[in-house]
Amino acid sequence: MKLKHFFNLEWKQYFRSAYWQKSMALNILLALFALYFIVTFLALGIALYPILKDAFPDQDPLIIVNSYLFYWFLADVVMRFFFQKLPVMTVKPLLTLPVKRRKVVHYVLGKSVFSFFNFLPLFAIVPFGIMLIINDYPLVSVVIWMFTIFVITLIINFLNFIIESFSSETELSFLPIIALAGGLFAINYFNLISFTSLVATAVNSIYETHVFIIIPILILIGLYLLNFKLLRGKLYLDSSLQSKVKEVKASNLDWTRKFGEAAPFMQLDLKLIWRNKRPRSSVFILVIGLLYGLFFYPNPTYQDQPWMFAFVGIFVTGIFLINFGQFIPAWDSGYYKMLMSQNIQYKQYLKSKFTLMAVSVIIMFVLSIPYVYFGWNILLAHLAAAIYNIGINTHVVLFAGSFNRKKIDLNQRAAFNYQGTGAVQWLVGLPLMALPLAIFGASYYFFSFEMGCLVLAILGLIGIVFHQKLMNIITEKYLDSKYQMIQAFSQDN
Amino acid sequence: MINASNLSKKYGSNSVLDIKNLEIPKGQSFGLVGNNGAGKTTFFSLLLDLIKPTTGQIKSKDILVSESEDWKPFTAAFIDETFLIGYLTPEEYFYFIAELRGQNKADVDGLLSQFEDFFHGEILNQKKYLRDLSKGNQKKVGIVAALIGNPEVIILDEPFANLDPTTQIRLKSIIKDLAETQGVTVLISSHDLLHVTDVCERIVVLEKGEVIKDLATSTETLKELEAHFAGNQVV
Fold this sequence. Notes:
The structure holds two protein chains of two kinds. Chain A is mainly α. Chain A has 23 helices and no strands. Chain A has two domains: 3-241, no CATH class; 254-489, no CATH class. Helices cover 73% and strands 0% of the residues of chain A. Chain B contains eight helices and ten strands. Chain B is globular, with a radius of gyration of 18 Å. The model of chain B has no long low-confidence stretch (mean pLDDT 89). Chains A and B meet through helix 12, helix 16 and helix 23 of A and helix 2 of B.
């Protein structure tokens, strides 16, 4: 079995997947995103030196950069965990063929080196390095520096492999990484151990004493070998290739009875969210969403731009709604046929989803109350945004769901799992955020901040008042597209 | 009980089902046989209103399935594993279905206790999700779930495939019991002529979407069917 066979197989797997063929638009979007990041990193790489020189004329820009490398690496680890897909090959058919197992493993590991995530930093590092050389830094040292960063990037790449393979075996897949990253960050922040200066010192000494480059290289080789060992052990049918069997931890969901006839669906939805990796990640995103305000509010530049408050409010209170809601009813696509042949009322099915989203908005609003620390305006804007989310956006998202034709395979594991875990899903959420922002912006511009909040809140209240009517319309729409949905959901990706 | 008239389904110009008239009386065990692509699953899907007929209609207990949903309370089906919810345990799945069909936990437990034999200790209390069960065990869950709530019409597509011999035999007695003593209309499809002749009192052979044989099962039926399908292969 030659390398070209591997390539050939992968090529076909990729381009013949129905997903690729069906959603050209999504691929173009992904490409645009990649392009965007490349350009951003390029700009960063080029501009960083002059900016730092300008801001801190009496400090060495390279030293400043080195002192922040820890955060860069930490961010890299976290980003990769959530966005980088492990290059899993369909190895099962290969196992009985005369292919050496080690060759398969080497190939899989080697392939991961060519991930976009490994090249992205280069777009910043190389221009920055060139800027350094132009500014009379020693050529060899700078090249060594660039090489060091790249080697560390690769170390992170293989580290991520290990982290992911371990965390995929635990029930709360993202907790370890969050604990790890958060722990490191906290230790560093409270100066228990200053990783920032550790990393800075390490990189600086490699920059000065070139021989030290051997250390990261050795670490890289070590990690590669460790990965090799781990993966090789998994290349047996009885271990990782077979989907893992997890012990069930059932929880008591009897409290959902309060929701009356929608209760069975509520229970189903909660289990759906908790027991499947993909919807579970939308819960995790709640945390990100909650912290999102911290990007804006402490920053004085945004303090006198109150229109931002409504945007953040919609985002913070509606993050679950946007994330989870946009895949209704595709979450249930795997067994949609069954649901449709059962004795169910569409209305209750939809009501469960609505309740879930509305409750999430309320919870997020309550959790975001501490932002009042940054001003009462913020609380007001969040409240208005929450009402708008409950009254309008929930219905919009449900209505839009009736156009949903893309199956989600909940059982799908890491391989080629593009489905909505990437940046793309945020795009779908744009209208949900852009519309209220436009409404708020207009009333803020022509009247006042309070007026803007009032308009949003009133719109939301109108939505809540007409909830039953709106749900009837939405139900009608779902019934209309029943056959198309069944057909689309029964197609494999 | 079930009446199909002028029923046809076309994809483009390709006709996959064309049934002039088919009447299935209450309490009949009805078998549908045919080669791949003969239209068996299409017929069941039409009966469950999962696809829209190109022409004609199906009535179940005089209810037009494509217009009213009132047939759902007395109809249950297991077509394939997409009828299962992978992230539930078998028990949770049974209770969920039961809830949709207006049954309580005790009803389900009572029903399940009758199937301990059938489950062979591999389904209940295993603390496993349905997605982690073997194909055969998934099928058992789906079939039993279709019996929850005393349905009057039960539709099983290929119920014998993927099951081990012991389970096949047990399933046969379950199906027979349903039709003979409980008056349930059972519709099954199968590739296994032996099983289907064992279980069903009436067998309809589909070919390219059309009914070409409609037999009341007798001792001769198996031979006749075998001759028919052997002949098909030669042509």
